[in-house]
Structures are given as C-alpha cells and as structure tokens.
Design brief:
single chain, alpha+beta, 2 domains, 9 helices, globular, Protein involved in plasmid replication-relaxation
Length: 232
C-alpha cells in the first residue's frame, strides 16, 4: 500500500501543496511525520495557512532572506504530533501571533483542548475581535470575556454574543436562527475555524432572519452558498 506523503507547512501558496507533496515524498522523511491521517492532516493544513501568513510578515516587515525565514519557521513549528500537543509551544506561538502580527488573521483553535484553556480562549477571542473590527471597518468594543468561550461585543450600539463551541465537529460557522432580542444576537462558532468572512457578511445585514443550519446544509457540496441565500 502506497504511503500518503505528508503536507508540508512551508508551501508559499495553497495551490503549491501538490507540488510540495511530490518533492517532500522524494526526500527522507521522519516516519512519525508520515502517520498523519484525518484530523491531524487537517491540522497540518491549518498550520500551513498560519505559516504562509508568518512568512509574508517576516519577508515584508523584517526583510529576511528566504533561507532565514524557512529556518525560523522550521524551528518554531516542526509538524509532529507531539509538538501539536505541546502546550507551551502553541501558547507562545499564539501569543506572538497576536502581539507581533497586528491581529490580522484567524487563530485556529484546534489546540484549546490541549493547553492553557483559560488563557488560550481569551487569545482566540481577542484575535477574533480585532479581525472582526478590521473587516467591519467600525469600532467594536470587547465588553466582556467569560468562561467557557464566550465574548460580548458592542458594535454600533448593539450587543452581540459570540460562543466558540469545541464540541461541534463541523468545519463551518453555524449561526443561530434568531435574535435573542432586537439588540442581541447569538453566534456559535465551530471548533475547526472561525469563519470571519461569513460572519462579517451576516453582521452587515442586521435585518436577516437566521435559520438553523441542518446537517443537509452542512454536507452540501457548496457550503458557502447557504449564507448567500438567507432571506432578507
């Protein structure tokens, strides 16, 4: 049975992954790095996205050479299962991301179950808050952060609650079907990623009546189509 090559986190662009797979498969690879299947493989893809953002930041703001960048990334995130579960390493990386990269990307929260939950959940929500503010181009006040995984945002004099639901296995933003009150809406964000583009679209249309996303919606081929067909 042919072994599936691992996904390199150092690809510069998403469409280069297939090329990178072929190149990496021709090199001697640590066996532990070839054992990724299912969820771990998706984790590696998410790491690759974070690496791409980091790469662009280092090149633009620090004028680092390509070899320096690759060495730095390799030292910071060796994609091995034991490192993914390493609490301190992921905490440091997340903190650096928020302090150093101007809060312009989404922090994936696969690792919340492994580490300093009371700290990490706040980091994820803080990153979410700044990214949302940037996309909406408006002032948003982070009113409160509570446990577990809850934040209240004040935007345009209206309050919005946000929950991160680690128990949902789907890789899609799930919006509740109704407003709690006229000034308060509830959003449930899945474990795999915070889908800011979709959420920003939803928030820009406050008169939308949401409906519950069913399994049929989630497993449709075009998952994003659902969000563009909500009734106005």
């Amino acid at each position: 049975m042919e072994k599936k090559p691992f996904i390199s986190p150092f690809s510069l662009r998403r469409h280069e992954w297939k090329v990178e797979w072929r190149v990496q498969s021709e090199r001697p690879v640590n066996r532990e790095m070839q054992r990724f299947t299912g969820k771990e493989e998706r984790v590696m893809q998410d790491l690759a996205v974070l690496q791409i953002i980091t790469h662009k930041h280092l090149k633009k703001h620090y004028k680092m050479h390509e070899k320096q960048i690759q060495n730095m990334l390799a030292k910071r995130l060796l994609v091995q299962h034991r490192l993914i579960k390493n609490k301190e390493t992921w905490f440091i990386y997340t903190r650096e991301a928020i302090e150093g990269y101007k809060k312009t990307f989404v922090v994936k929260n696969y690792w919340l179950g492994y580490g300093k939950e009371e700290i990490l959940q706040r980091l994820v929500l803080v990153d979410f808050y700044f990214e949302l503010q940037r996309k909406m181009n408006t002032d948003i006040t982070l009113k409160a952060v509570a446990i577990p995984f809850q934040a209240i945002f004040i935007m345009n004099d209206k309050a919005y609650e946000v929950y991160i639901n680690r128990g949902d296995p789907h890789d899609l933003l799930v919006a509740l079907n109704q407003s709690i009150t006229k000034e308060r809406r509830l959003f449930i964000v899945t474990e795999q990623l915070i889908h800011l583009n979709v959420l920003a679209t939803v928030l820009e249309r406050p008169k939308i009546l949401y409906r519950v996303i069913t399994d049929e919606d989630i497993y449709r081929k075009d998952k994003h189509e659902f969000f563009h067909t909500l009734p106005s």
